[in-house]
Input
Amino acid sequence: MNTSSGSAAYVHPSSIVDKGVTLGERTQVWHFCHVREGARIGKNCNIGQNVYIGKDVVIGDNVKVQNNVSVYEKVTLEDSVFCGPSCVFTNVINPRCEYPRDRDTGFKTTLVRHGASIGANATIVCGVTLGRYAFIGAGAVVTKDVPDYALVYGNPARPQGWMCECGERLSFKGSRAVCRCKKQYRKSASRITKTA
Output
């Protein structure tokens, strides 16, 4: 295990961190976790109890992965992502035990962009991108890309509104919204952008 300089990462004695893993400073890996070889976890992350992080997974800075989450190979979590308890990632779209998939051609890439939140027990089907500050409701089944700032929930997950970077639901008047935190947004077609 490699740790960056400064405040060392903490790994609970019950967890297994394979050789070749990089843990950023102030990152904490709690009880009964397994972090596979080649995984890179950034600074100030909190990896909850009973978490599995697959081979060569990349996790940015300030990420929170709550209890009972498996982050499989080919999943990338950018900075400040929140993974709620027992949310589920996949990496093969058509698994068969009798016909194993090759990691280079059979595994699909999943990208969770900066600041996105995934609710408890949500399922993220592989091959999608969750946009910046997207908000995935608890129990949702995500089968398609989710735009920046979008709120989605249901099975399959469908757009239900828009969320501020601070986590409050936005209310638009025409094409503009101002959050309680004073951030401002503009809506055009099926996307929004932060204006101030």
Observations:
- The longest strand covers residues 158-162.
- The two ends are 41 Å apart (CA to CA).
- The chain has a mean pLDDT of 96.
